[in-house]
Amino acid sequence: MNNHNVDEFLSSLKTFLKNHFAQYKIEFLIRTPKSLKANIHLDEKFFIAARYNARNGRMDFALIQDDKRIFGYDNLKEWHYHPYKNPSVHIPCDKPSTDKILFEIKKIYETTK
Question: 28-83: per-residue pLDDT in tens?
């Protein structure tokens, strides 16, 4: 997704959300042509922190419960994920698709809420 812009990233994100979450509200913290910081509120206790930087291809997704990260993926230095129940750990992985990340977040959200 390095060559994508924020609008393309956001469009694919919204498509997934519309298809897989009954309700959500996107709060934009920063939105420029090259970067996006958004919180996708799923309910009063959970949100997805989504970050994207088109300049360097950096992506960061975290499922937040009660203001604490409980799961996430990002590519700071290299792709890795932060496992559910132990999110301070970094486990290297191959580059996941955005849909794969969001499906995993959805599964954890649905079993935790």
Answer: 999 998 999 999 999 999 999 999 999 999 999 999 999 999 999 999 989 999 99
Backbone angles phi, psi at 16, to 5 degrees: -60, -50
Closest CA to 16 of 104, 77, 83, 112: 104
Q: Which residue has the tokens 């994207």?
A: 52
Calpha distance 20→10 (Å, rounded): 15
Provide the whole-model pTM: 0.92
Contact 1, 59 (CB under 8 A): yes
Q: How far is CA 5 from the centre of its chain?
A: 16
Task: Identify the bridge partners of residue 48 per DSSP, sorted by sequence position.
Answer: 40, 63
Q: What are phi and psi of 96, to 5 degrees?
A: -85, 160
b/e sequence 64-89, b meaning 16+ C-beta within 10 Å: bbeeeebbbbbbeeeeebbebeebee
